[in-house]
């Protein structure tokens, strides 16, 4: 069994990005610039945005944070997005989700200029991803594909089961795994899937993205499978400073001995999600990816 070290891989990719930024700067280009819009003061969102700002600093990107209070009117937020769309000094931006319930998330996503949509949530980017055109790909699936490539994991002709069909993880993951460059045969499972246990046990590559801690147990995993655990549920803990720890969708201790490869939680998919946003921003800074 081999542990897929997302932390070390992400660190290596950050160094590659930093080296590219250094070359861009010495060629007279300005620093790549990412902005984040944060609405309200949700603890999780504050943490994620703080990480994004730190990551930018680490690789030599400029970052900007635009804050709004919880009660911001949707139109005010949309107007700010239009302003950022037209800011030539900005390469890409994200709107941290979730948003307060009075704001329509889809309106927000669709107002972002797709060429600056480094989260890859705009339907133009999703559609382009589906038909295999250059696009910004959602960070988590993008990061998982990068891990599979860097660990030289054979995907061609393999049966991949993706558990979860969300727009940001499960669905784009299933699309990417079925692309001609990856060539897996994909089954997407969800809460209405029948006989999920034996379906999972038939997977050569099992990608668990359900957000149900400890759901995938040993009997649901084939001997020699590759297991990617996307789940990161916050569990209260007295042993950490933050008061919680992250738990994956896979019971790591019992599943790992059966696997060819497995991602731990934390330290697997999470760091790759973070670094994928940097990769997308670097792509945006290099010019229009659609042309
Ligand atoms: P989500 O929007 O809640 O989607 C969960 C999906 O799992 C849904 O499609 C749901 O089915 C399915 N599901 C839930 N319970 C199930 C069950 N018992 N059996 C079969 N399918 C089930 O979640 P998400 O945003 O995709 O995130 C999934 C997990 O990944 C969460 O733990 C999240 O925190 C984590 N995550 C981690 C990272 C990272 O960087 N590591 C990034 C993003 C997300 P239905 O569609 O039928 O409801």
Q: How does this model look, in words?
A:
By secondary structure, the chain is an alpha/beta fold. The protein folds into 2 domains: 102 residues, Leucine Dehydrogenase, chain A, domain 1 (Rossmann fold); 132 residues, NAD(P)-binding Rossmann-like Domain (Rossmann fold), CATH 3.40.50.720. It is 39% helix and 16% strand. The protein contains 10 helices and 11 strands. The strands form 3 sheets. The chain has a 6-stranded parallel beta sheet with strand order 1-11-8-7-5-6. Strand 9 and strand 10 form a beta hairpin. Helix 1 packs parallel to helix 10, helix 6 crosses helix 7 and helix 6 crosses helix 10. The longest helix is centred in the first third of the chain and has 21 residues. It is globular. It starts with a strand and ends in a 6-residue tail after the last helix. The relative contact order is 0.16. The mean pLDDT is 97. Bound molecules: NADP nicotinamide-adenine-dinucleotide phosphate (NAP). The site of NADP nicotinamide-adenine-dinucleotide phosphate has 25 residues, from helix 10. The site of NADP nicotinamide-adenine-dinucleotide phosphate (NAP) has 25 residues, from helix 10.
